[in-house]
Write a structure and sequence with these properties.
About 30% of the residues lie in helices and about 15% in strands. By secondary structure, it is of the alpha/beta class. The strands form three sheets. Strands 1-6-5-9-2-10 form a six-stranded mixed sheet, sandwiched between helices. A two-stranded antiparallel sheet has the order 3-4. Strand 5 and strand 6 form a beta hairpin. It holds the Pfam family Amidase_2.
Length: about 200
């Protein structure tokens, strides 16, 4: 059972891992906590945004849509590798996913196929949206991939988790394809290497 970090602790943890952080407005208090609990937390979930343009992407992830209010994540990782903190607490990013996947993340075992959506992921995962069209062709700059690795490792390091606590949205919720353009196994290997340091 891992309680979420405080907002200030989250900020400090990211910066200690060498992440370039931009704080967006009242991010520390911008959340969906009135819709349900935040925590215990068990992992880090990575997404892509299907958007172009950093400023637009950050604003959208902060504010959300009429039918899906923001924040849509905790941090937005733009192409230049900056992590824009847009919310903290419960965020509309993971949605419903597979309880067997959650059990595997908690146990830090290999992930089973996600074949049902019966468990509230917004309660249990830190979420990072990454600026990318998600078409398999939009590039992932090295600066952005480095930031994704660093944020995942930072959260895992704080909680004492291994790289197996880092998953993609596509591994959680049936029908999702994000993040598209790199393998989650490759990202977990990078996180594992960073956690050795």
């Amino acid at each position: 059972m891992a309680p979420p970090m405080s907002a200030s602790g989250f900020l400090d943890t990211l910066r200690a891992e060498g992440v370039t952080v931009a704080e967006v407005g009242d991010w520390q208090d911008h959340n969906r906590n009135h819709k349900g609990p935040w925590g215990p937390v068990h992992g880090v979930m990575i997404h892509h945004t299907v958007t172009r343009g950093s400023e637009h992407t950050v604003q959208l992830c902060r504010d959300g849509y009429p039918d899906l209010p923001g924040p849509l994540c905790h941090g937005v990782i733009t192409k230049d590798g900056t992590v824009h903190l847009v919310g903290y607490g419960r965020a509309n990013h993971a949605g419903l996913g597979d309880d067997e996947v959650l059990r595997a993340v908690i146990a830090e075992k290999g992930l089973p196929p996600d074949n049902e959506a019966n468990t509230d992921g917004n309660r249990h995962f830190y979420g990072f949206e990454c600026e990318n069209l998600g078409d398999g062709e939009d590039p992932w700059p090295d600066e952005q991939l480095d930031a994704i690795e660093r944020v995942a490792a930072a959260v895992c390091r704080h909680h004492g988790w291994t790289e197996r606590s880092v998953i993609g949205h596509r591994e959680w919720q049936p029908g999702k394809v994000d993040p598209r353009g790199f393998a989650m196994s490759w990202l977990r290997e990078r996180v594992a290497e960073r956690l050795k340091g």
